[in-house]
Design goal:
single chain, about 425 residues, alpha/beta, SH3 type barrels, Rossmann fold, seven-stranded mixed beta sheet, 13 helices, about 30% helix, disordered N terminus
Length: about 425
């Protein structure tokens, strides 16, 4: 049997401790003792994935590592078990579009609960302050009230009686790291405007997804303001790099120790700390699913949204290496959430115009380059999309939170949500 490269260990070492593994094994519906085809070796593990067409099997060991192999390496009893079980998709992996999308021409009734026999489709929102959101709810021009009730924009935000609508098939959850690295909870309710002090793009995102998906949906926002991709959100695996004679830290490195040792440095800020905090908080929510989506039993991370870049625009090295870090960020998120097929949508900064130069131009070019339609990254075709938000912005800049104009946040959110729906409808390469 051939384990994945990151977990490769000799067969003798994997089997010698099988008795200990059995004691440590976390109970699960697919946990069992597996036997090799010659009957000479056994090991404990939980079935993670199985593809009847190829015979590919994935088994999670009690220590959390994964063995990947073909069913021909197993006993006849194990193969019979697999065939009886049928296709198994890894936990967290996005299903095929036909499994979750509403039939063409049909829109789920947002006033009714979703079908909880289907896994909750989780969409994780990451970024900095404009993803957090600074759109005004009340007031005159630029407020959400004015946009909806006076200009008659975004009509789905009102119910038939003229009150703010409550979307009972889309859960709106927002968390942020607080003092002592604790998780602060800001929203945990059905998608509705009341109870929200300001808005980000989540309403524009959540409604198109709720209309298109015939399954429960969770919008899970985990982010905080003033964070850069080249430092705070630097993804795991990023190595130190040289720029203008200076060494920039890699993941979990610091200015004094750019390489780091792979561990979280104590009592100091380090490269990738916000990545760790934001992903850890999202995982905390998902590990307690029923608290955040009542009565839900299972979930799948179907996609990621990213709106960010302001802070990197103030740093030469971060702007220069933004594209490299963005590509790594996309790939690492899918790996960390065990969601290889999850779609990814990002938005550019509203003030950034095509053809711009300087640091802002470099960031814009990088964000546009990763769109799967450009062909620069063939592996991103039909699964990564970039929303060019300059035509959608109502003025101002990302650093100034677009003057708090809620229409910018709604317009960008709608475009991001529609881009995600399009990706979900596209075949996985």
């Amino acid at each position: 049997m051939k384990p994945s490269p990151s977990t490769r260990t000799p067969w003798s070492r994997r089997i010698a401790g099988s008795a200990t593994l059995a004691l440590l094994l976390l109970c699960g519906a697919q946990a069992r003792t597996w036997t090799s085809s010659d009957g000479a070796k056994t090991f404990e593990g939980e079935l993670k994935s199985y593809d009847p067409e190829t015979g590919a099997v994935g088994v999670t060991l009690p220590n959390g590592k994964t063995l990947d192999f073909n069913q021909t390496k197993l006993s006849e009893d194990d193969i019979a078990f697999l065939k009886k079980t049928g296709k198994v998709t890894p936990a967290g992996a996005a299903p095929a579009p036909s499994d979750i999308l509403a039939p063409a021409g049909e829109t789920p009734d947002m006033s009714q609960p979703a079908d909880l026999s289907k896994p909750v489709q989780v969409f994780i929102l990451l970024g900095q302050s404009n993803m957090v959101g600074a759109g005004k709810i009340s007031g005159g021009e630029g407020s959400l009230e004015n946009a909806v009730k006076t200009k008659k924009l975004y009509p789905y935000l009102l119910d038939p009686s003229g009150e703010w609508s409550v979307r009972k098939d889309v859960r709106n959850v927002r968390v942020m790291v607080g003092k002592g690295n604790s998780m602060q909870l800001f929203n945990n309710d059905w998608m509705t405007v009341p109870g929200t002090k300001s808005i980000g793009p989540e309403f524009g995102i959540g409604h198109p997804l709720g209309d298109a998906i015939a399954a429960p949906v969770m919008i899970l926002k985990s982010c905080i303001g003033n964070r850069s991709l080249g430092w705070d959100l630097l993804p795991p695996g990023s190595e130190p790099y040289e720029f203008n004679g200076k060494t920039e830290p890699g993941y979990r490195g610091t200015p004094d120790n750019p390489k780091g040792n792979g561990e979280k440095p104590d009592a100091v800020w380090y490269a990738g700390k916000q990545y760790d905090d934001d992903t850890d908080n999202a995982k905390k929510v998902l590990s307690d699913l029923n608290t955040y989506y009542p009565d839900a039993k299972k979930y799948e991370v179907a996609g990621f949204f990213f709106w960010q870049g302001e802070k990197d625009g103030g740093h030469d090295a971060h702007a220069e290496f933004y594209e490299k870090h963005l590509v790594a960020f996309i790939k690492q998120l899918r790996k960390d959430f065990d969601s290889p097929n999850a779609k990814f949508v990002l938005a550019t900064l509203g003030e950034a115009k095509k053809g711009s130069t300087g640091r802002g131009g470099k960031i814009l070019d990088a964000q546009l380059a990763v769109d799967g339609e450009t062909g620069k990254y063939p592996e991103f075709k039909n699964n990564v999309a970039t929303v060019y938000s300059n035509p959608l912005s109502k003025g101002g800049s990302g650093n100034g939170h677009y003057g708090g104009n809620s229409e910018t946040y709604m317009n960008v959110g709608e475009a991001m949500g529609q881009a995600m729906v399009k990706l979900l409808q596209s075949p996985t390469p």
